[in-house]
Amino acid sequence: MLSNREEAALAIYKRKEAMKPQKEEILRKSGFGREVNFAKEGKCPSCRRPVKRSDLRDYASQKEFDASCLCQKCQDETLGSF
Ligand SMILES: [Zn+2]
């Protein structure tokens, strides 16, 4: 049984997963090339601090990280608005 927060994270993850093949290209063309580069360096594209998968709290956070590369703190801030 998932909590509401995990359901929300999973819904976001599935939405992002669906557009994954062109994701990087779309992001770069949309002017987010810098963010893509941060993510590739293992840094959170939002706060630019290094982020590791092992720092994430739970499965839903790891899935969100796979999709957005956001650290736990930035995920909390983003998903907290749900
Ligand atoms: Zn962050």
Explain the overall architecture.
The structure is a single chain. The protein has 82 residues and is mostly helical. It has one domain. The protein has four helices and no strands. α1 packs parallel to α3 (59-68). Bound molecules: zinc ion.
Outline the biggest β-sheet: none
Q: If you average the pLDDT, what whole number results?
A: 83
Gross geometry: globular
The tally of domains stands at 1
Rg over C-alpha atoms, rounded to the nearest angstrom = 12 Å
What gap, in angstroms, lies between the N and C termini? 19 Å
Strand content: under 5%
What structural class results from the helix and strand content?
mainly alpha
Number of helices: 4
- The level of helicity is 55-70%
Bound molecules: zinc ion
Write the layout of secondary structure elements.
Layout lengths: L3 H15 L4 H18 L18 H10 L3 H8 L3
Helix pairs in contact: 1-3
The site of zinc ion has 8 residues, from helix 4.
Please sum up the structure shown:
With 82 residues, the protein is an all-alpha fold. Helices cover 62% and strands 0% of the residues.
Features:
binds zinc ion; about 80 residues; mainly alpha; single chain
